[in-house]
Amino acid sequence: MLRRRKITLSVAGGAAALLLIGGGVAWAVSAMQPAQPVESTQATSPMPSAEVKPTTEPPKNEAPKYDLDSPSSITVVVNKQRPINPIDWAPDDLVLPAGVPNVWDHPIRAEAATALEAMYAASVDAGVPFTVTSGYRDYALQKEIYDGLVEQGGVAFADKDTARPGFSEHQTGLTVDLFGEEGCSLDACFGETATGIWLRDNSYRFGYILRYHDGEQATVGYTYEPWHFRYVGVDVATAMHDQGVLNLEDFFGLPPAPTT
Ligand SMILES: [Zn+2]
Predict the structure, then answer these.
(1) Ligand 1 midpoint to CA 176 (Å)
(2) CA 131 – CA 245 distance, rounded (Å)
């Protein structure tokens, strides 16, 4: 009983210090406790020790470790300053999501496809079925799109809304562009449609996040794209939703990537 109470106090003290002067303190508080007394191995110890055994366990509040760099990681962060490495990497587990309307039959990675199938079924139940207008795009296709835009309006024009080859989330195979029965495909007005609103509010339950929110350009590098959903897994998507964090850069403590 005593031991439990002491541990509780220790954690509470650590938490209070944490609030005052930041992270790492909880561990320091634990570490400052007196050294653990040598325990008697005598079964016939005359009296129970009144000494409280200090905890030597660090607090269980360490953030999980995520792989933000490997191109095959579902939490890889790709933005205008973090290209896919190697730059022409391609996934080896691309599949066509089953039963999901898909304009160009673009595949995505298997895990993201399974999640998309579940999200599609839920969207049908909610009366807001969506269609995929873009999924995996390889390095060569992104280069074609980007070079076409450069030709059309110059580098600044192309960079405004289109990733350079090797810098597109679509090349990870974890990203889809979606639209609904109300139209507004690849248009900001999609965010005001019932489908766009449902996806924004519910995608986290399936491991997808709206990647480029309105007003986040200084961090994510792109203007508002209410149609662009990135699979990061249910754990991360739910944590972001619950904490109100709008982008991966902030969630993982990465620097903003407004430009190339
Ligand atoms: Zn997109």
Answers:
(1) 6
(2) 26
Phi, psi of 79 (to 5 degrees): -150, -170
- pLDDT, one tens digit per residue, over 53-96 is 555 555 555 555 899 999 999 999 999 999 999 999 999 999 99
Residues 6+ apart with CB under 8 A from 44: none
Enumerate the domain spans of the chain: 2-31, 94-252
* 206 vs 123: CA distance, rounded Å: 11
Q: What is the β-pairing status of strands 108-109 and 130-134?
A: unpaired
- Closest among 101, 91, 87, 183 to 134, alpha carbons compared: 101
Neighbours of ion ligand 1 (CB under 5 A): 177, 228
- pLDDT band per the 50, 70, 90 thresholds, residue 52: low
Chain centroid offset of residue 170 CA = 15
Q: What is the pTM of this model?
A: 0.75
CA distance 53 to 35: 9
Round the CA-based radius of gyration of the chain to a whole number and report it: 25
Angle (CA) 103-199-176 rounded to 5° is 40
CATH number of 94-252: 3.30.1380.10
Give 109 Cα–ligand 1 centroid separation in angstroms.
15
Q: For residues 169 and 211, is the Cβ–Cβ distance under 8 A?
A: yes
Contact of 186 with 224, CB cutoff 8 Å: no
